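Please decode residue identities from the backbone states below.
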């Protein structure tokens, strides 16, 4: 169902964003509001974002420069193509059996709408930042609890820790319950912030990219955490996978600093 033009999402719409929003929205409402679209997009973007790291892992066996970027230098070669392959099928299976039906049900209950106005650039920026800050906090609390409550760790989180040296695709290699809980945290963050759909899409895309980067196993010279020092990046999250009781936050480092669980 379409919204009539409203002032809900700001009047000062940047012309570029408005043009983009109208281009995306016009005539494609049925596709955009399909309850299956979120899971489909989440899986496809995850695979797409992992593709460059698949190439890096493949190049690692022949290129010393690529190997020098690996965080776990000296602790073994990059993951084999077979490991990628098995991980891909595990993630696909969970998406088809759990994530797709669950998100379809959620989208049907949410009955989202497409406002006529795009957000302003400032609104887009503020909403995406707010989503990340909120998601980071909720993730920290949930992740910390999963490590502190043995039942939660064994039944929900342990599967993700099968990768002591993670690789890009492993960011979604978790139990169905964990995948669902993280999805719920991301959706609730956007809901609490009251995001415009365009801001929400951008948040989900960036969230997917940053989760992949966290697990990629490379400390690349152009990685986001080198540009933005308040982000932990792959070295920060890889330390979590090897030490277990450090670096619980997914992206920012302030919660771990505050709770004394930061490992640099
Ligand atoms: Zn992880
Ligand atoms: Zn963990």
């Amino acid at each position: 169902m379409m919204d009539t033009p409203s002032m809900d999402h700001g009047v000062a719409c940047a012309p570029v964003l408005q043009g983009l929003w109208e281009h995306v929205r016009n005539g494609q409402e049925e596709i955009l509001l399909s309850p299956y679209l979120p899971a489909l997009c989440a899986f496809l973007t995850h695979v797409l974002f992992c593709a460059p790291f698949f190439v890096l892992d493949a190049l690692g066996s022949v290129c010393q420069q690529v190997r020098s970027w690996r965080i776990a230098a000296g602790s073994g070669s990059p993951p084999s193509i077979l490991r990628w392959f098995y991980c891909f099928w595990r993630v696909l299976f969970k998406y088809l059996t759990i994530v797709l039906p669950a998100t379809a049900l959620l989208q049907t209950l949410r009955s989202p709408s497409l406002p006529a106005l795009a957000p302003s650039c400032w609104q887009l920026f503020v909403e995406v930042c707010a989503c990340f800050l909120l998601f980071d906090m909720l993730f920290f609390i949930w992740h910390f609890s999963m490590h502190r409550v043995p039942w939660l760790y064994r039944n929900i989180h342990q599967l993700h820790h099968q990768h002591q040296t993670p690789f890009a695709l492993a960011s979604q290699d978790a139990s169905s319950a964990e995948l669902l809980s993280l999805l719920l945290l991301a959706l609730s963050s956007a809901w609490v912030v009251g995001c415009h759909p365009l801001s929400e899409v951008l948040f989900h895309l960036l969230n997917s990219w940053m989760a992949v980067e966290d697990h990629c196993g490379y400390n690349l010279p152009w990685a986001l955490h080198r540009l933005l020092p308040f982000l932990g990046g792959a070295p920060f999250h890889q330390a979590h996978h090897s030490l277990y009781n450090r670096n619980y936050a997914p992206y920012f480092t302030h919660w771990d600093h505050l709770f004394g669980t930061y490992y640099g």
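Observation: The chain is about 65% helix and 0% strand.
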